Amino acid sequence: MKLILILLHVGFLFFAGCDQGKVLGPASKLELATAAEESCGYVQNEFGERVSWKSNLPVNMYIDSSVPDDMAESIKSAANKWSKAAGKNLFNFQMAAKANSITPSIDKVNSIYWSKVWDANKSSQQAITTLSFNGPLITEADIKINAKDFEFYIDTPQNSLQVNFESLLIHELGHVLGFKHLNLKPTVMWPTLAPAFLRLEIYYTDQKTLKCEY
Ligand SMILES: [Zn+2]
């Protein structure tokens, strides 16, 4: 059975909490009893198994043409930190030449989109990462950046509301790897990110999560 989970990243200024996505229950008590694993910081499927890319690495992602070039460099920098922590290359990026489709679709292509269009009721979301998985194996991940309601910066914020882009991406790429939100600091998977806050290191907590699957 194919399942899709949407992980929302909510802005610090607007809500203290964050929607952690759909709660997936077990298909049956028997299956849960035989297949359940410790979460170890990962999203789990309906049988309680951790979802990840297993040995299907590196994750090949397209950076959509909608993403500004300088921001694309921040994506690669965030990915390099994950790879360095894992001791192997976890991500490969390719710049997509195709026209921006704005709404990421389930098409077996992993993409990062820069969206100037966003649901008015969800203006507190800084980004959305969508994970598709088949059993315990992630089959697709898409990141959509809310460039309508948020301004992002690379090195120096130009105003008090701008969000550090690499700090956001290090978190969203964690979701791409299968990580869920963690409420135990310090972690890059903390659900909220305040303007101008820097979250550029993979913490010990995140390294431990990484080692559970990669
Ligand atoms: Zn998140």
Structural class of the secondary elements?
alpha/beta
**Cα-based radius of gyration, to the nearest Å:** 16 Å
How many DSSP-defined strands?
9
Bound molecules: zinc ion
Major sheet details: 7 strands, mixed
Major sheet strand order: 3-2-4-6-5-1-9
Work out the strand percent. 15-25%
* Count of discrete structural domains: 1
Instruction: Look up the CATH topology.
Output: Collagenase (Catalytic Domain)
Walk me through what this model shows.
- The chain is α/β, with parallel strands linked by helices.
- It has one domain: Collagenase (Catalytic Domain), CATH 3.40.390.10.
- 22% of the residues lie in helices and 24% in strands.
- It contains 4 helices and 9 strands.
- About 11% of the residues have low confidence.
- The structure holds zinc ion (ZN).
- The site of zinc ion has 6 residues, from strand 1 and helix 3.
Q: How would you summarize this macromolecular structure in one to three sentences?
A:
This protein has 214 residues and is an alpha/beta fold. It has helices spanning 29-35, 69-86, 165-176, 204-213, and strands at residues 2-11, 59-63, 91-95, 110-115, 125-134, 137-146, 152-153, 163-164, 192-193. The protein has one domain (2-213): Collagenase (Catalytic Domain).
Question: How are the elements arranged and paired?
Answer:
Blueprint: E1 2-11, H1 29-35, E2 59-63, H2 69-86, E3 91-95, E4 110-115, E5 125-134, E6 137-146, E7 152-153, E8 163-164, H3 165-176, E9 192-193, H4 204-213
Parallel strand pairs: 1-9, 2-3, 2-4, 4-6, 7-8
Antiparallel strand pairs: 1-5, 5-6
Bound molecules: zinc ion.
